[in-house]
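Tip: read the tokens left to right.
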């Protein structure tokens, strides 16, 4: 059959879905200038395809501008149509970044970090997901048997990531039922989130071609573990040298690292509305799920909102490899929006010269709330309404974003919640499993 090669100009929208339009690859030179028409109210299409209350109505026009530097092309060699994805910005017809474009929002956050500190960001997203069309077995957790059962999927996924220009690192059978984890090497700045967005789609594309389905839903079964997204970050100076580690700093944190993390933890309740923003995300963000439940910094603690990751070796290895990860995130979030929120919070901490936070090494769920409060610690929001309320009540966090953003985002998420009214808990879990 005849085919016209198409490129999908993609935006990672408010609900973490890749949306956009396809155009003939032969038109690329034209499209990077003129773009492709887009409608403002499209940003209010929730993950359930319901349109949330929109301030734009039927009015207005925008343009999706594909970025050739973000192109990912993967031919799986099985006769199927190759994946051709190009991350894109949404601009006004006057050529200005649109206030609800998640990629433009991240660019602004990275520019702020550089302006206030001279620093750039290096990082990577670590993803957990589940295969829903296959049957898992008892005894597969972290086991060769669990890997072997999906060896074809794992090898094809890693090959697809490599062909797409990402840096495949590891893939493994995780603890949960038919749960796997894939990691990639670090990127700089904007490419951190671009790579995360492409990775999710290539995992789904690989599963589809092998007759399966992959879901990145935050949690499938409350009796089990959830699917987290761990966002690893480190800081580089203007010369590209790592400045995250300081041998004399608390737990190895440099002064700037301590302030950056302190900013994240100060605004953690509001951040959850942007980093773990589904109606079921709060189920995962509870104690004893190896997730995150309090706004704490942990040293090698997998239940901390921010964790200092282990690095072994000499001074050079420590300086290069030392990083921290934010764990209160999942794939219901736009990677660009989640990272932008963290960068803004970190830049805020640097601007205010916040002292490094206490490093905890205990089960915070056992402490009395008054003890936690005295130490500046608090539970993360228990559900999406509470997270949205925390974001709405944090004027500093709202002020990080373009003027119209907060109102539009809050309306989007309220529309998502409205689409779930009348559904049972099991139906809600199934709905998220299906859409992610």
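Filled-in amino acids:
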């Amino acid at each position: 059959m005849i085919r016209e090669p198409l490129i999908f100009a993609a935006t990672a929208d408010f609900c973490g879905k890749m949306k956009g339009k396809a155009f003939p690859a032969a038109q690329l030179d034209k499209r990077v200038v003129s773009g492709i028409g887009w409608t403002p109210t499209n940003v209010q299409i929730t993950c359930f395809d319901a349109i949330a209350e929109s301030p734009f109505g039927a009015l207005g026009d925008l343009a999706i501008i594909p970025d050739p530097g973000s192109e990912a092309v993967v031919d799986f060699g099985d006769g199927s149509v190759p994946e051709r994805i190009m991350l894109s910005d949404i601009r006004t017809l006057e050529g200005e970044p649109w206030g609800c474009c998640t990629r433009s929002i991240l660019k602004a956050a990275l520019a702020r970090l550089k302006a206030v500190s001279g620093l750039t960001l290096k990082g990577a997203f670590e993803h957990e997901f589940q295969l829903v069309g296959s049957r898992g077995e008892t005894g597969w957790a972290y086991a060769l048997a669990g890997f072997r059962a999906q060896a074809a999927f794992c090898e094809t996924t890693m090959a697809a990531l490599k062909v797409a220009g990402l840096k495949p690192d590891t893939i493994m059978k995780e603890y949960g039922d038919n749960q796997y984890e894939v990691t990639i090497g670090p990127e700089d700045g904007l490419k951190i989130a671009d790579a995360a967005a492409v990775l999710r789609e290539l995992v789904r594309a690989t599963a589809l071609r092998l007759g399966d389905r992959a879901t990145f839903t935050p949690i499938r079964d409350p009796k089990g573990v959830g699917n987290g997204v761990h966002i690893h970050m480190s800081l580089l100076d203007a010369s590209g040298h790592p400045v995250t580690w300081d041998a004399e700093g608390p737990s190895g944190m440099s002064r700037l690292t301590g302030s950056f993390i302190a900013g994240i933890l100060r605004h953690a309740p509001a951040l959850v509305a942007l980093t773990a923003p589904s109606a079921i995300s709060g189920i995962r963000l509870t104690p004893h799920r190896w997730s995150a439940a309090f706004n704490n910094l942990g040293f090698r603690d997998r239940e901390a909102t921010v964790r200092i990751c282990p690095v072994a070796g000499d001074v050079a290895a420590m300086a290069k490899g030392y990083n921290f990860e934010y764990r209160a995130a999942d794939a219901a979030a736009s990677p660009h929006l989640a990272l932008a929120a963290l960068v803004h919070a970190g830049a805020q901490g640097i601007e205010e010269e916040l002292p490094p936070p206490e490093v905890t090494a205990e089960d915070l769920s056992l402490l009395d709330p008054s003890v936690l409060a005295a130490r500046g610690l608090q539970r993360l929001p228990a559900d999406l309404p509470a997270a949205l309320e925390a974001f709405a009540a944090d004027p500093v966090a709202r002020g990080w974003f373009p003027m119209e953003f907060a109102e539009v985002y809050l309306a989007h998420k309220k529309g998502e919640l409205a689409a779930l009214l009348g559904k049972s808990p099991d139906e809600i879990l199934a709905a998220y499993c299906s859409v992610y």
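Residues 98 and 114 are 21 Å apart (CA to CA). DSSP finds 15 helices and 16 strands in the chain.
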